[in-house]
Specification:
The complex is a heterodimer of chains A (about 230) and B (about 260). With about 230 residues, chain A is α/β, with parallel strands linked by helices. Chain A has a domain of about 140 residues: Rossmann fold (3-Layer(aba) Sandwich), CATH 3.40.50. Helix content of chain A is about 35%, strand content about 25%. Chain A is built from 7 helices and 9 strands. Chain A has a 5-stranded parallel beta sheet, with helices on both faces. In chain A, strands 2-1-4-5 form a 4-stranded antiparallel beta sheet, covered by helices on one side. In chain A, a hairpin with a 5-residue loop joins strand 1 and strand 2. The radius of gyration of chain A is 18 Å and the shape is globular. Chain B contains 10 helices and 10 strands. The longest helix of chain B is centred in the C-terminal third of the chain and has 17 residues. In chain B, about 45% of the residues are buried. A 6-stranded mixed beta sheet of chain B has the order 6-7-8-3-9-10, with helices on both faces. In chain B, strands 2-1-4-5 form a 4-stranded antiparallel beta sheet, covered by helices on one side. In chain B, helix 4 packs across helix 5 and helix 5 crosses helix 6. In chain B, strand 4 and strand 5 form a beta hairpin. Chains A and B meet through strand 1 and helix 2 of A and helix 7, helix 9 and helix 10 of B.
Chain lengths: ~230, ~260
């Protein structure tokens, strides 16, 4: 479902002494439907960079990234947007929303954008918000003023509202209490059982053990920057 | 798929000064493209060439018309181009005074576009105007007031209503939120975003405000000194800019 073939990434910072920072070198990865792969490594090792490249947010310097057979490194912007709409979801660490839009609409948006009827979409969103313990009186408010944990759960609800065949999760359980963490874990496992291919960053060891089938050390894709890596 | 707009090698000089040069791109139905760059980079020149307000020196602008397919709008005769401007196209000016008639009522401003395409039934025109004034969140009891009595944000929303009433397919916008205070900007952007999705509009938005394009645009073109230096998916260009100037532009934004 998600396939990386000798992917590399170098950042060139023109305004900072033209510094060239190689982050990823020759990354290969293959994630099958229903499989969950955790990216592990110290901070700065390139986990997020790798995730963002898969989402088309960062350009790969070389190599190819395929999601359901579509090569994102060669795709037009509208083709990438289409993949994001129907194939590849992304739950980031932070919620980014337009002020004024009520929580329920924020969660239902992925369904509405693929043309699902409004009533059906909102019903699905309600069920997810309910499951994730977001108080009903908050549903009609914009999530901008919610607490960190609430925002994260809204973000998760949004990511799971539509059954994406491929999903990227960036620390989905980071700022949650135990009870909510278990709910999120079961949500992820349910998606897996339905065949969703997942790549994620989970710092929470417990969650990782319950969800992931494989761990990938990102360090093995990290080029030796100044010889001190060994 | 046939693009809605197909631009090839467009060039416009002011004497020896470059306005814009070597511009080529395709815009597909439902796509929103942002053009960003500093003042004087050629953004508005390009937009005016595309919308038929300026005659380019070289190149072509093909538009996929409903009846005849792709037609070069630069070689089109003036009446046809004006008809396109009244029906399929819309142009939202930075200053609402440029896009509105300040001395006729708000309803008249919206109704005039309808009359220009042949609507004559006063009842229908008023009903339609009322519905649009409501959609752009102006209180309907202001329909008979002149836009000169409106606030800047209301004038801008009225201009949008006037432009969209004829159900255009392509909207050109020149700094639609310039000159508005921040709270009004957010409201206008949210409104525009919903209308774009609901009406499946294609749009080209010129702005120097990166927050505007992040919210509205699917893709971006970055201009400098009349040339396009970088283009791509909006969040990719903003989060992983490849060109020295774009990196400078993105890193110059003050964090709130």
């Amino acid at each position: 479902m998600i396939q990386l073939k000798s992917v590399s990434k170098k950042f060139k910072l023109f305004n900072q002494q033209n510094a060239i920072i190689p982050v990823i070198e020759n990354a290969n990865l293959n994630v099958n439907p229903g499989e969950c792969v955790a990216l592990v490594g110290a901070s700065g090792s390139g986990k997020s960079t790798l995730m963002r490249m898969i989402y088309g947010n960062y350009l790969a310097t070389s190599g190819s990234i395929l999601v359901d057979g579509i090569n994102l490194t060669k795709a037009e912007p509208r083709e990438i947007l289409e993949v994001r709409k129907r194939k590849l979801g992304y739950v980031s660490q932070f919620l980014r929303v337009v002020p004024r839009v009520p929580t329920l609409k924020v969660v239902a948006e992925p369904l509405l954008s693929i043309g699902k009827p409004e009533a059906e979409s909102l019903e699905m969103a309600e069920a997810l918000l309910e499951e994730l313990n977001i108080p009903k009186k908050l549903w009609q408010l914009s999530p901008t003023t919610f607490s960190g944990g609430e925002q994260q759960r809204v973000n998760i609800a949004r990511g799971f509202c539509y059954a994406f065949p491929a999903l990227l999760l960036d620390e989905p359980t980071a700022s949650l209490d135990k009870e909510n963490r278990d709910i999120v874990i079961s949500l992820i496992n349910r998606a897996k059982n339905k065949g969703t291919a997942i790549v994620g960053i989970f710092h929470d060891q417990h969650a990782r053990e319950l969800i992931c089938d494989r761990e990938i050390e990102v360090k093995k894709f990290t080029p030796d920057r100044n010889g001190s890596d060994a | 798929m046939t693009p809605l707009l197909k631009v090839e090698n467009l060039k416009k000089n002011y004497g020896t000064q470059i306005g814009c040069s070597g511009i080529s791109f395709n815009l597909h139905p439902g796509e929103v493209m942002g053009i960003v760059g500093e003042s004087g980079s050629g953004k508005s020149t390009l937009l005016n060439c595309l919308a038929g307000h300026l005659q380019p020196d070289e190149g072509s602008v093909f538009y996929n018309t409903k009846t005849d397919g792709l037609v070069d709008t630069i070689l089109m005769n003036e009446p046809d181009r004006r008809m396109l401007g009244r029906t399929d196209w819309a142009f939202v000016h930075q200053n609402p005074r440029d896009g509105l008639r300040m001395s006729i009522s708000a309803g008249g401003n919206v109704g005039e576009r309808l009359m220009a395409v042949g609507e004559r039934h006063y009842g229908h025109i008023r009903e339609n105007a009322l519905s649009w004034i409501d959609q752009v969140e102006i209180s309907t009891d202001r329909i008979d007031d002149r836009p000169s009595t409106f606030s800047g944000g209301m004038q801008q929303r009225l201009q949008i209503a006037r432009n969209l009433v004829t159900g255009p397919r392509l909207v050109f916008m020149d700094e639609p939120t310039g000159g508005l205070d921040v709270s009004v900007q957010a409201r206008l952007l949210d409104l525009l975003r919903n209308l774009v999705i609901k009406m499946n509009l294609s749009a080209i938005i010129v702005t120097h405000d990166l927050a505007v394009v992040r919210l509205l645009a699917d893709r971006l073109m970055v201009m400098k000194s009349g040339h396009v230096i970088e283009s791509g998916l909006t969040d990719q260009v903003l989060d992983d800019p490849q060109h020295a100037y774009t990196q400078l532009l993105v890193s110059s934004v003050l964090q709130v």
